[in-house]
Automatic annotation (TrEMBL):
Gene Ontology MF term list: acyltransferase activity, transferring groups other than amino-acyl groups
Phylogenetic lineage: Bacteria, Bacillati, Actinomycetota, Actinomycetes, Streptosporangiales
Keyword terms: Transferase
Span of domain N-acetyltransferase: 17-186
Protein name: Protein N-acetyltransferase, RimJ/RimL family
Superkingdom assignment: Bacteria
Pfam families membership: Acetyltransf_3
């Protein structure tokens, strides 16, 4: 894979959403999100406040260091923090890695409004147009059909040969088997969604 370039910390805007660096005020609602069993149904466990804060800090550190990452997600109309969406380099070992993944995690009350697809569209525009990536991947547990549906709405292609057992989960764990989706820059440009806004200039 081609290596992503480094940029100043970016903010992305869509018609309804702002993808931005993290703020201290995000930590409490993020901890509530990560402690919600509905949100965390397809993760190994809910997160403690300390674990949630570490994830937020790591996400913000990546944005500060390289200009992009898992951005905090905010509703433009109200300023409400609703989760994160963005780009990440997975650290575990798998045949399809190294790669950059598109990922999201939204509060339960924000489901059903198309926010994940809208935010991910902006992040993918950034990945291909600003970072010059040739491919972005995404993956989730086979039982997480909600996230798989978002991947398909984005035009990602299921790579059934690449489906894998997540190495951090033990054999027999209900979430161990994962599906792998891929999206190339050329395919994205051929079918780029037009229903959502596009990212504004980074700053």
């Amino acid at each position: 894979m081609n290596l992503p370039i480094l940029l100043p910390p970016a903010e992305l805007r869509t018609a309804r959403l702002l993808l931005r660096p993290w703020r201290p005020s995000d930590l409490e609602p993020f901890a509530a999100l990560n402690a919600d069993p509905s949100v965390m149904e397809h993760f190994p466990a809910i997160l403690s406040r300390a674990e949630s804060d570490r994830l937020a800090a790591a996400s913000d550190d990546a944005i500060a260091r390289q200009g992009w990452g898992r951005w905090a997600l905010e509703l433009q109309e109200t300023g409400e923090f609703i989760g994160f969406t963005g780009l990440h380099r997975p650290a575990f070992e798998a045949p399809f890695l190294p790669a950059v993944e598109i990922a999201w995690r939204l509060s339960r009350r924000s489901w059903g409004h198309g926010y994940a697809t809208e935010a991910a569209t902006a992040a993918l525009d950034f990945a291909f147009d600003r970072l010059g990536l040739e491919e972005v991947v995404s993956f989730t547990a086979t039982v997480n059909t909600r996230s798989s549906a978002v991947m398909e709405r984005l035009g990602m292609i299921h790579d059934s040969v690449g489906d894998f057992d997540h190495p951090v989960l033990p054999p027999g764990h209900r979430l161990r088997r994962h599906v792998l989706y891929r999206l190339t820059a050329s395919h994205w440009r051929d079918r780029r969604p037009t229903s959502s806004g596009h990212p504004g200039p980074g700053r």
